[in-house]
Amino acid sequence: MRIVVFSGMTHTGGLAVATLREADPEGKLIIVEPTVEKSAAAKKQFPWAEVLKKNVDEFIEYLKETAQLIDVFVACSDSDAVNYRFCKTALDVGVPMVIPVLNNPLNRELFQRSGVSIIVNPYASIKPKLLEALKADGEISLYESLNSQIVLHAYKPTSRVKLESPEGEVCFLAVKADGSTVSKVREVDKNEVLYVLGVKDAVRRCLESVRAARGKRVSG
Fold first, then answer.
1. DSSP secondary-structure letter at 24?
2. Which of 6, 130, 184, 211 gives 20 to 30 Å between its CA and that of 13?
3. Residue 206 parent element (H or E)
């Protein structure tokens, strides 16, 4: 693939560049920086990539002129307003895949309205990680696939609950109080964590049944 990244030498930009290299080591990666200093730093940090020096307006023109050669564009500047201009231009000129990296998660809806289908929120792990570590009971959303079809949830019960799952629709894994794991889970108890992986609607129905069963006594 031919991938273009407007990095701005931000922390997220550097991580994005390294990840794109891992995703497609044989592809052509072009890094665009807005200043001489940042382009020099990028050349030193990423010697295997092509580095261009272009300010915002110059890069807009670059996108328009080379859109037919670009497979993926990733916007990682330190300004969501600038990233929005880049992404809107890339979409308008027909770049197949346009991906902004958010600086402010509250701006997600703005990018969604522009027609961007993939949005990277580098802060997305804060909430699930803290909840998984600190929330005493209840449901925790941990992961959702790009197409939103597959999800992973954790559930911490307040009492023993019997589990019922449609065959083949979801997968269970329980972490016991002693740290051991069990894959064939029939019930889950207080101080244990149930992980549920599967199709989004099936996981939702499964957890609804778990919540409905909460508090009911389980024999044994």
1. -
2. 130
3. helix 200-213
Between CA 126 and CA 2 the distance in angstroms is 32
pTM above 0.90, yes or no: no
Over residues 153-194, the pLDDT tens digits come to 999 999 998 887 666 789 999 999 999 999 888 889 999 999
Q: How far apart are CA 88 and CA 64, in angstroms?
A: 11
Q: Distance between alpha carbon 170 and the CA centroid of its chain, in Å?
A: 21
* All structural domains of the chain: 2-114 (3.40.50.720), 126-213 (3.30.70)
pLDDT tens digit string along 190-214? 999 999 999 999 999 989 888 887 6
Phi, psi of 46, rounded to the nearest 5 degrees: -125, 70
CA-based end-to-end distance of the chain:
58
**What is the phi/psi pair of residue 56, to 5°?**
-60, -50
Lookup result for tokens 């108890």: 189
Q: What are phi and psi of 4, to 5 degrees?
A: -115, 130
DSSP code of residue 107: G
Identify each DSSP E strand in 57-204 by its residue range: 72-75, 97-100, 138-144, 150-156, 161-162, 170-175, 181-182, 187-188, 193-199
43 φ, ψ to 5°?
Answer: -60, -35
Kindly calculate the radius of gyration of the chain based on its CA atoms and give it in whole angstroms.
Answer: 22
